[in-house]
Amino acid sequence: MKAFVDRDTCIGCGACEMTCPEVFSMDDEGKSVPVKEDISENLLESAQDAKDDCPVSAITIN
After folding, report:
1. Core-most of 7, 36, 44, 58, by most CB within 10 Å?
2. How far is CA 28 from CA 22, 25, 33, 40, in A?
3. What's the CA gap between 44 and 62, in Å, rounded?
């Protein structure tokens, strides 16, 4: 599974990074970026929680 962030939609609130810092980080522009190429099984639930917590639905996980 991989995480993707729509940078045009992201508002930089940081909720994803607070929920799952192993997968998401904020870049120099204040936007979320995935920091892992592939999400391991042990992080999948936390990454899904981050996706669900995003107030603008900028995250997808496939």
Report:
1. 58
2. 18, 10, 10, 26
3. 11
Spatial CA neighbour of 20 closest among 47, 42, 2: 47
What pTM was computed for the model? 0.93
pLDDT tens by residue, the chain, 62 residues:
999 999 999 999 999 999 999 999 999 999 999 998 899 999 999 999 999 999 999 999 99
What is the distance between the alpha carbons of residues 25 and 39, in angstroms, rounded to a whole number?
14
**How far apart, in whole angstroms, are the C-alpha atoms of residue 3 and residue 46?**
12
The position carrying tokens 């909720």 is: 15
- Tell me the two tokens of residue 6: 């729509």
CA angle 13, 7, 27 (to 5 degrees): 60
